[in-house]
Amino acid sequence: MTSEQIHVADAWRKAATDLGLQVQAPFELSDVDGSSVQFIAMVKGFGSPRGAVVCSFTDWQSTRGLIQQHGYFASGLNLARYAQYERSLFVQTLRDWEWKGEAPAPDWY
């Protein structure tokens, strides 16, 4: 991962602690040829029951099909905007993705 992607992954880990989320950062999926594709993070329960996979907007164009094939919601973000954890921005993003998890939504939602 690039240094900017690492900062975004760190920000999602901070969001997990602050907002009570289940976040795996980084996150990997297998491509059809069996190779692994690494993404910045996966946020469980948002965007789809399996969760939302976070990547850069540039990568979103080429990887959203793979992400969706695995049953995840694909979100391409402006990495510069998400490189530091800002609670209001992350909450708005999660609300935009919508809660789709099996368990009750977090209290702040």
Outline the fold blueprint.
Blueprint: H1 3-19, E1 23-24, E2 27-30, E3 36-39, E4 41-43, E5 52-56, H2 57-69, E6 73-77, H3 79-82, H4 87-97
Parallel strand pairs: 5-6
Antiparallel strand pairs: 1-4, 2-3, 4-5
Radius of gyration: 13 Å
**Main β-sheet description:** 4 strands, mixed
Number of strands: 6
- Write down the overall mean pLDDT: 95
Tell me about this structure.
- With 109 residues, the chain is α+β, with helices and mostly antiparallel strands.
- The protein has one domain.
- It is built from four helices and six strands; from the N terminus they run αβββββαβαα.
- It has a four-stranded mixed β-sheet, sandwiched between helices. Strands 2-3 form a two-stranded antiparallel ribbon.
- The radius of gyration is 13 Å and the shape is globular.
- The termini are far apart.
- The model has no long low-confidence stretch (mean pLDDT 95).
Descriptors for this entry?
109 residues, two-stranded antiparallel ribbon, 4 helices
Briefly summarize what is shown.
The protein has 109 residues and is α+β, with helices and mostly antiparallel strands. Helices cover 41% and strands 21% of the residues.
